[in-house]
Amino acid sequence: MDTIIAEVSTIPSAPSRACQTVLSLSELPASRTEVRTLVLAAASCTDDAPGAESRARVLTDGVDTSGLDVEALEGALADLGYTAGLDAVLRLPAQGLGEVAAPSLLVVGTGQGLERAEDAASDAVALGSTRSGVLARAAARAVRELAGTDTAVLALPAADASDLEAVARGAASGGYSWAARVPAATAPLGEAVIPSGLTGSEGEQALARASVLGGALRLTRDLVNEPPNRLTPQAFAQLAQELADEAGLEVEVLDEAALAEGGFGGIVGVGQGSVHPPRLVRVSWVPASPSQRVALIGKGVTFDSGGLSLKPPASMPEMKSDMAGAATVLATVLAAAGLRLDVRVDAWLALAENMPTADAQRPSDIVTMYGGTTVEITNTDAEGRLVMADALARAVEDEPDAVLDVATLTGAQIVALGDRVSGVMGTPSLRQAVTEAAVAAGEAFWAMPLPEHLRANLDSPFARLRNASVGSRAGGMLVAGLFLREFVGQVPWAHLDVAGPAYNEKSAWGGVPVGGTGAGVATLVELLRSMAR
Q1: Going by DSSP bridges, is the β-strand pair 343-354/422-426 parallel, antiparallel, or unpaired?
Q2: What is the pLDDT of residue 50?
Q3: Minimal CB count within 10 Å: which of 230, 336, 351, 380?
Q4: pLDDT value at residue 17
């Protein structure tokens, strides 16, 4: 193959050393590239005639289709009843469809995604379904379908840098499998070749950015997929140390003794019921002349039983994912370093295991948080806000320009927004910046308020705050955000609740696998990129 493989910065992988799809660029037309499969995208279209049925229209804008008989292909798709619905894929032989080097074709549907991306009356764009988002999803879906294949060429629109980066970003997202599975999972697509005229520095930079983001997604997914008997707080902290050292980043780890001595009552209280003691880890990317300083705080509850306020059995299997926030911020700081962003990033990993053993925290306990705020424990299953509050209070002491926290914090987030849309609360300007970054990154975040009248739910007759409202489930996601707000002072702050989107317990969709998804990584990386401009 006549390809150009970009020199890319990478970030370290998680313990499983995840398999990954290699991305490369080619100057050849897609039809002449010698690979196993030629991938094309198609939209679902309907003629203006009354009663007309949907049909598939192959996307040729920005695609060199020389050598391919597009009209014959669309006719074959119609004969097979393929209408290019969203995520619908169809394999067919290349024979009779022109002069195509690949023996087979794969067509992936975008539905009416591109039309909705131009519809000002639709919420699709606000939820990340821009043109770039649609192309990224199509590429991801195709690459995921091609697991077990060695090579493919992605003949999707990639004529300009935006489209190219979207296709590459999607391919990196779709090319994932958790390599620690026994027996082994099917390996992802070996190599995805993207034909594009942008094979110079502009194209290589777009590919490099997508590759770094792909590495961040893999790391996050790998960590979330690790079983809790292997990813304890100590093991997580040790891994963060190793990855930071490998990337040349600053790192600080506080063990249980240092946490107790330093007054981190929230983290200590949550972790005291486990034989695996808690940790607080700071990993910092420090460029020579940073334009801004940003603190990222991630919830790292490596397993959440609910403590003495025990969860029902059906809710526990996915609670290994309660550390997704910590995985997200660790991957983000490594990506910031890989991209050499001109922003200082301090990622704080608040790590603990919430168990109901002999010395577990009790409802009605009172703990003193870092900085002196007292909190009455009314629900030991509202533990995430306790570890996060300690880390927030410590992080703002460094006077960052902005602080953002990421957490699988509340079931109320899923009730309010479903399992694919994350909520973001906080300082209005930073909250808006997060939603704008999410749109650019192709992710779904929705701005949520912090109504002042709900603050009374946190009043306690015995302490400065209670950790959860008693007897009311109203606005649970918002009440949790109000609790965290108490610990950030006047620093611009945003709280990202990714409880539903961080872990996919249903079937795969787009480029999202079953298990850890990496939700929030692309948004945070895009936000940091915007701050560095």
Answers
A1: unpaired
A2: 63
A3: 230
A4: 45
pLDDT band of 470, cuts 50, 70, 90: confident
Between the CA of residue 61 and those of 65, 97, 109, 155, what are the distances in Å? 9, 19, 15, 10
Asked if 385 is an active-site residue, the reply is yes
Residues 6+ apart with CB under 8 A from 453: none
Alpha-carbon span 271 to 299, nearest angstrom: 13
Given 36, 57, 311, 464, which residue is catalytic? Answer: 311
DSSP state of 5: P
**Residue 48: its pLDDT value, please?**
61
What amino acid occupies position 256? E
* Tokens linked to 485: 């707000």
Per-residue tokens: 305:
């039983």
How many whole angstroms separate alpha carbon 434 and alpha carbon 325?
A: 16
- Average pLDDT in the 312-337 region? 96
Q: Which of 385, 420, 466, 529 is catalytic?
A: 385
503-504 and 515-516 beta bridge pairing: antiparallel
Which pairs from 185-188 meet CB under 8 Å and 24+ separation? 186/147, 186/148, 187/19, 187/147, 187/148, 188/19, 188/20, 188/21, 188/143, 188/144, 188/147
State the pLDDT at residue 122: 85
- Cβ atoms of 411 and 510 closer than 8 Å: no
Cβ–Cβ < 8 Å for 367, 467: no
The pLDDT tens digits of the residues spanning 75-96 come to 999 999 999 999 999 999 999 9
Tell me the sheet residues that pair with 368.
374
Is residue 429 exposed (0-12), middle (13-18) or buried (19+ Cβ within 10 Å)?
exposed
How far apart, in whole angstroms, are the C-alpha atoms of residue 295 and residue 289?
A: 17
Average pLDDT over residues 15-21: 60
What is the predicted pLDDT for the residue at 9?
Answer: 41
Residue of 413, 472, 476, 469 whose CA lies nearest to 446 = 413
Per-residue pLDDT of 108-164, as tens digits, reads 999 999 999 988 788 999 999 999 999 999 999 999 999 999 999 999 999 999 999
pLDDT value for 3:
39
> In angstroms, rounded to a whole number, what is the distance separating the alpha carbons of residues 334 and 321?
20
Q: Measured between alpha carbons, how far is 505 from 517 in angstroms, rounded to an integer?
A: 10
Tell me if residue 466 is catalytic. Answer: no
